[in-house]
Amino acid sequence: MSLPSKLTDFTLAEARNAVSGKKVSSIELTKAFSKAVADAKPLNAFVTETPEKALEMAAASDARIAKGEARPLEGLPLAIKDLFCTKGVKTTAGSNILNNFIPPYESTVTQNLWDAGAVMLGKTNMDEFAMGSSNETSFYKPVLSPWRAKNSNAALVPGGSSGGSASAVAANLCLGATGTDTGGSIRQPAAVTGTVGLKPTYGRCSRWGTVAFASSLDQAGPMTRTVRDAAILLRHMASVDPKDSTSVDMPVPDYEATLENGVKGLRVGIPKEYRIDGAPPEIDALWQKGADWLKALGAEIVEVSLPHTKYALPAYYIVAPAEASSNLARYDGVRYGHRTKEAIRDITDLYEKSRAEGFGAEVRRRILIGTYVLSAGYYDAYYSRAQKIRTLILRDFEQAWEKCDVLLTPATPGPAFAIGEKSNDPISMYLNDVFTVTVNLAGLPGLAVPAGLTADGLPLGLQIIGKAFDEATVLRAGRSIEIAANFTAKPQHWWAA
Amino acid sequence: MSQHAAKTIKGETGEWEIVIGMEVHAQVLSKAKLFSGASTEFGAEPNSHVSFVDAAMPGMLPVINRFCVEQAVKTGLGLKAQINNRSIFDRKNYFYPDLPQGYQISQFKNPIVGEGEILLDMKDGETITVGIERLHLEQDAGKSLHDQHPDQSFVDLNRSGTALMEIVSKPHMRSSEEAAAFLKKLRAILRYLGTCDGNMDEGSMRADVNVSVCKPGGYEKFRETGSFKHLGTRCEIKNVNSMRFVQMAVEYEARRQVAIIEGGGTIKQETRLYDSKLNETRSMRSKEEAHDYRYFPDPDLLPLELEQSWVESLKASLPELPDEKKARFIKDFGISAYDAGVLVGEKELADFYEELARGVDAKAAANWLNNEVLGRLNRDGLGITQSPVSASANNAIIRMMGDGTISGKLAKDLLDIVWSEGGDPVQIVEQRGMKQVTDTSAIEKAVEAVIAANPDKVEEIKAKPKLAGWFVGQVMKQTGGKANPSAVNAVLKTRLNLPDEG
C-alpha cells in the first residue's frame, strides 16, 4: 500500500506501521503535526498546544523504537479533549472557572494512551463542561469546522461538545483525538465533520480524572479519520479501573483483528421511530442507502421498534442537568479554579460571584434546570420519571436485540450549521442529540461513520448502535459502511496562513 | 415491649410526659476514609490527611471502603437489626466550605441497616426496649476554623470523607435518664464491637436529640397506632456531645415546651442548639428555613450489594455483647443483675472483673472491685484501663485473703502498697512478713503475755465474758495485726475458760 506524500495525511494505522517500521521517526511525524496545529489557529481547535512536551515524548518514543521496545501506539501524536485531566498541563473543561487549573494527576484514559506510547500534541477546545452541540459555549471562543458549504465562506460549527477534537481530526492536525460523549458529544461532531467517532459502552473506559458532566452518561471514546483507527485507539483507552466503581471488568478485545470480517449474516435493525418529522430528505435517503449497502454486503435488514424513543430527549435533559447541577457544585472558588476578585460580604457572596463569573450562560441554564428537577416536590415529577423512562428505553433495546445484532440510524438530524444559527434557541440546539441520546441513556456503544455529502457538499454520518460491550461488531459493521460509502471528501485547506 | 412508668413533668395545667428519639453520629473505627484511602488519624496537622477525592478535585471519584461497610454491618448485627443486602448511596446537596464536593454522600431511602433494638437497664431494675429505626453510612464534613484570623476563615479537610454511621432510634425514651442510658448502652455496644471508639470529647460520637411533650396517654396511643399525631411537635437539639449535656438539654427543652404550650403558644418544629454554659437551648433554624438537599442516588457509585454468606460470617464472628455477657455473669458468677449490669457497662471493666474473679469467690471479687478498686480509681480520677494494680495482681490479693494468708485488713493495706509502689503482692507479703500468724504456739505466747500484763482484766472477764473482744484486740496489737483473729479467739476461749456463746 502506498503511503500519502504528506505526513499529516497519514491515518493512525498508516503512521503506526511507518513509525514502527522505522520509515518515519516519531519526531518527524510530531513536528509535522505540531506545525499543522500551529498553522491552524483560525480553527481555534486547541485551548493549549504542547509542542515541547510532544517533542520530548516523540524523542522518548524514537529511543524505544531504536531499542526495539516499541509499544502499540509508539510515537503517534494525538489531541486530547480538554476535559481529560493531564498532569502539569492546564485543563479547563472549556470554562473560565477552570481557566487557571493545572491538575496534579493524569486521567486514566490519557495515562493508558501514554503507557501505550502515544504523544500529546495539546488540549482541544470544547463546549463548556461538554454542554453544547456546536462548540459555541466554550469560554475560549467557538471552534470552526474546516468544512464550508459549496460556494460559501460562512463559518460552520464543528458540532459539539468534542468540537475541537473533531475539527482537529478533520483538518489533519492529529492522527486521532479523544472525545467524551454524554448525549452525542463524540458522534454528532464526528458526523458533521466527516470523521469517525465511537462512544463505547458505559463502563468500558474509566471516568477517573475526566471532568464530570453527567456521571451516569459520560463516556470517553476515540475520534479518528477511519474506523480502523477508532478500533486501534479504543483498545488503548479502555480498561477496568479500581478508581472508577462504574468501570467494568471485561477483557478488552483486539477490535482491529475482527474489523474486516464483514457483515454477512449480520442482522441489522432499522428502528422506525428514528424517522422523524421535519428531518431533511437527504437524511432519510442516506439512511436508506446505508441499509442497501449493508444488505448488498450480505447483512439481513430487519424493521424494529423502539417505542419509547420520543421520550429520550426530554428524559436526557432532566437526568443530565440533574447530575451536572451536583457535579459542578465543587467549583465554588474555595480550593481551586476561578475566585471572584470583587469585594465579598460573606461565603454565599463568594460562591455567587465566583460561579456567576466562572460559568457561561449554557452551564448556568443547565445547573438551574438540574437544581429545579431535583427539588423537593418536583423530584417525583421529573427526575424519578426520567429514570423510569431510562429503564423503558433500555428495555426497548433489549427487545430489539432479540431480532437484530446492531441498529442502523442517522447520526444527526442534519449537517453542520452556521455559527450563531442556533445559539439563541436552546431547544433547536438540543434537538441535535435526538439520534444519539438514547444510546447514552441505555449505556450502549454507538459509532458515527461518514457516509455521504449533502447537496451543499457537507458531510453526513450514519450511526451503528450495538449491544453492551459488543464494540467489535459495531466497528465491523461501521467498517462495512466505510467501505461501501467510500467517503474520500476532504475540506478545502482554507485556514492555513 | 415493657411498659415503663413515664417520668412526668408537673406543669400549671397538670402532668406532661416527655418523648425522646435520638440520632447518633458514630465515627466508624477505620484507618481509611469511607471513599478514599486517606488516613483518619485524630489530631494530625490541618489538611495533612486529604486525598484528591477528599478535596473534590475535578474528575475524582469515590470508591467504597469495604472495611467501613463491614463495620456498619457488624454494628447492625450488634443492634439485632435487619441487614439490607442492597443499599444505595445518595447525594445530599448543599454548599459549605468544609464540604468540598458540594454534596455529602449519604444513604437516604435505602440504608444498609434497618430496624433493630437496644435494651436499657435502669437503676430501679427495670429493662426498657428502645427501637432502632435505621443505621446508614455517610461521609463526615471537614472543619471550618473561624478563630484563626481577624477577617479570614480557614478550612481543615482532615475529617472530610471520614465514615460515619448515623444511628436513628425510634421515639421510645421517656426521660432524660433514659436518653443518657441509651447513649451509654449504644456506646458500650459500639465499643464491644470495635466499630466506633465512642470518644465523645473527640467528636467520634455526637447525638441529635429529638424532644417533644404530650399529655399522659398520648405516647401509649402512639405506640398502639404508630401515628405521630398523638405526640407533640418535636424540636431537634443538634450535636450534643456528652451524656450529662444530653440529660440537661432534655430537661431544659421539655420544660421550655411545656411553658410555651401552657402559655397558649404552639411548638414550632425546628432545630435547636444546646448551650452548656447557660444550660439552655436556642433556635438554630426553623423547618421553613431548612435546606432542600435535593437527594438523588450518587451516579458515581453502584448500589451496595452484600452477599448473605458474608453477612452470616460476620454474624458468626461477633464478640460477646453486653447483654449476653451480663446474662453469663449472673449465671456463672452468681452476682446480682444490678452488679452484672454495672460490670458489663464497660467492656474493659467486665474484662477486668473476669480476670480478677478467676478462681476466687465471685461475690467477694465483685465487692472487692466495687469497694476497693473502683473506690481508689474514683479517688484518683482514673479509668479502669489506667488502674495502677492489674486485675491479676488484685486476683492474687483476693486469693491470699481467701486462703487465710492475710486478713481483710492487711489485704487493703497490701492493695495500698501495690497501688503506690507497684510490685508483686505475693512477694511483698513474703518480704514484709505480712503473713497472718496461725501458729498457735506464737498466739499462745502472745495471749500469755497479755494475761500476765492485765490481771485485773482477767478477773473482770470472768464476770463479763463480752470483754473477750478487748483481749483479742490486745493480742492483735501484740502480733502486729498478723494474728489470725479466729485462732486468737480459740486460744483465749480455752485459756480463760470462756463459755461458747460470748
For the report, how would you describe the main beta sheet of chain A? 8 strands, mixed
**Approximate helicity band of chain A:** 25-40%
Domains of chain B (count) = 3
List the total number of helices of chain A: 15
- The best one-word shape of chain A is globular
Which CATH top level class of one domain in chain A fits?
Answer: Alpha Beta
The rounded Rg of chain A comes to 21 Å
Instruction: Kindly report the spatial arrangement of strands forming the biggest sheet of chain A.
Output: 4-6-5-10-11-9-7-8
Strand count of chain B: 16
Please give the largest β-sheet of chain B. 9 strands, mixed
Number of strands of chain A: 11
Assign the structural class of chain B, choosing from mainly alpha, mainly beta, alpha/beta, alpha+beta, or little secondary structure. alpha+beta
Mean pLDDT of chain B: 91
What does the model show?
- The complex is a heterodimer of chains A (497) and B (502).
- By secondary structure, chain A is an alpha/beta fold.
- Chain A has helices spanning 12-20, 26-39, 51-66, 108-115, 163-170, 187-192, 227-237, 281-296, 312-327, 347-358, 361-373, 380-400, 426-430, 437-442, 471-485, and strands at residues 46-49, 77-81, 119-124, 176-181, 196-199, 219-224, 267-271, 300-304, 406-410, 446-453, 459-466.
- Chain A has an 8-stranded mixed beta sheet, sandwiched between helices.
- The two termini of chain A are 32 Å apart.
- In chain A, 60% of the residues are buried.
- Chain B is α+β, with helices and mostly antiparallel strands.
- Chain B folds into 3 domains: 8-290, no CATH class; 320-431, no CATH class; 440-496, Arc Repressor Mutant, subunit A.
- The A-B interface holds A 85, 91, 93, 98, 101, 103-105, 107, 207-212, 214-216, 242-246, 322-323, 325-326, 328-330, 332, 334-336, 347-348, 351, 371, 374-376, 379, 383 and B 52, 55-64, 91, 93, 95-97, 100-103, 153, 155, 292, 294-296, 299-302.
